[in-house]
Design brief:
The protein is mainly α. The chain folds into three domains: 3-44; 56-120, no CATH class; 147-398, Receptor-associated Protein. It contains 18 helices and three strands. It has helices at 25-34, 56-71, 76-86, 90-104, 109-114, 122-134, 137-183, 185-188, 199-213, 215-232, 236-247, 252-273, 278-286, 292-296, 298-306, 311-315, 324-335, 338-397; strands spanning 3-10, 15-21, 37-44. A three-stranded antiparallel sheet has the order 2-1-3. A hairpin with a 4-residue loop joins strand 1 and strand 2. Helix 2 packs across helix 3, helix 12 runs antiparallel to helix 13 (278-286) and helix 12 (252-273) packs antiparallel against helix 18 (338-397). The N and C termini lie far apart (101 Å).
Length: 398
């Protein structure tokens, strides 16, 4: 029987970890539940399959096809075979083929997905596990299709909104390099006979000389800095600090907070309505937020919930969520309609995220254009100042 290394949370919020033998991760969760523990993470001590991570739209398409076939009465294994035949992407077919082999051995769908490494999101695995328990896998798959489809559309809108600013930044860098490496050197020969040059001109000449003759050194410096930053901010503490700083940036921080709040509300709503215990739901939802600083604060949230505080009270100390979320949760708790309130809040925040992104890009575009114009104006002034000075000297000599 496989051996699992697990982490779990008790009802009082205390944490425990250890090893346990179980036929599957689902059985491991059931065994821990009998002991009053809620499974938060599990690692199979045996080697697991390492499959490529599926994109959000691919996960949504999988859930949609699975929901349609299960609701039509098609068996799970037959449905997976049909899905595998329909998909033409080699890396996706590889995942489906591995899943079919596992299902034919009698493994549950949730455990089969969990065995595919990082191929499927943890949210989907947990939701399908709940669907298996309730016998409504088709309903769960349909709900997950809608959830991941909305997430994909929002991500696409955010990416589309950033295309133009990225093009502007590339143009700015290109224009600056052309000016400093090709245009300005043609003027420098005019200034060689001058005894003194204005400070802006000397600065521009120095930059141009460095870019023309030591461009390779600049490439090395940029590469080293990028490598150091990449390694540094992959570490837990620096990454948490970076995500905290991003939340405090003007305009950008508000946008990110809106996105994180909507993502958390939608995930928690899906888990809660499926009957997953709140502590376990929070443990899963924290990993879908996308901000390590916010995720780090959930240790206190889970402790507070285990000590008998309500969800709204437990979340009150989280820095990074919109304050409106707490009011919504409080109303949902008092009215007994928490899942509906969370879902409607997620829809509202998705719309707010789109509008905030549009406003931010609208402000960013003219800012970048003015910045590029400022660089060009500074270079022109730096070149024109010694030319005027040269003309004045010639006029005084005459």
């Amino acid at each position: 029987m496989p051996s699992y290394r697990y982490s779990a949370v008790a009802m009082d919020g205390s944490r425990t970890s250890g090893r346990m033998n179980a036929a599957s991760e689902a059985q491991l969760g059931s065994l821990l539940n009998k002991e009053g523990l809620f499974l938060t993470s599990a690692t199979l001590n045996e080697a697991r399959v390492n499959m490529p991570k599926m994109k959000t739209n691919e996960v949504a398409d999988f859930c949609r096809q699975l929901a349609a076939m299960l609701s039509s009465g098609i068996t799970l294994i037959r449905a997976m075979m049909i899905i595998e035949q329909r998909d033409s992407k080699p890396h996706i077919k590889k995942i489906y083929q591995a899943m079919i082999a596992e299902l034919q051995r009698g493994t549950t769908l949730s455990e089969t997905m969990a065995k595919q490494g990082k191929a499927f999101p943890e949210l989907l695995i947990s939701m399908m596990r709940a669907g298996e328990s309730s016998g409504r896998m088709d309903v769960t798959a349909h709900k997950m299709a809608d959830t991941f489809d909305k997430q994909h559309k929002l991500n696409q809108k955010l990416r589309s909104a950033t295309v133009y600013p990225i093009i502007l930044v590339i143009m700015i860098v290109g224009v600056v390099l052309i000016i400093f490496t090709f245009v300005l050197p043609n003027f420098f020969s005019m200034f060689e006979s001058m005894d003194s040059l204005p400070l802006p001109t000397r600065a521009v000449m120095g930059i141009s000389h460095f870019l023309t003759n030591y461009y390779w050194l600049l490439g090395i410096i940029i590469g080293v800095i990028a490598g150091v930053l990449w390694y540094t901010f992959r570490q837990p503490v620096p990454k948490r600090w970076l995500h905290k700083v991003l939340l405090r940036l003007p305009k950008i921080g508000i946008l990110l907070s809106t996105i994180y709040t909507g993502r958390f509300a939608r995930t928690l709503s899906s888990l809660y309505v499926s009957g997953i215990p709140m502590i376990q739901a929070l443990t899963i939802a924290r990993n879908t937020v996308g901000n390590k600083y916010i995720e780090w604060q959930f240790d206190d949230v889970i402790d507070a919930l285990g000590n008998g505080r309500t969800l709204s009270q437990a979340l009150s100390g989280v820095n990074g969520f919109e304050r409106k979320l707490l009011s919504t949760i409080l109303i949902g708790e008092e009215s007994g309609r928490l899942e509906q309130m969370l879902e409607s809040t997620a829809d509202q925040y998705d719309y707010d995220s789109e509008m905030a992104t549009t406003r931010l890009i609208t402000m960013l575009e003219p800012t970048l254009i003015v910045f590029m114009a400022g660089i060009v104006a500074f270079v022109m002034i730096s070149v024109m100042m010694p030319i005027f000075q040269l003309y004045q000297n010639i006029g005084a000599g005459a």
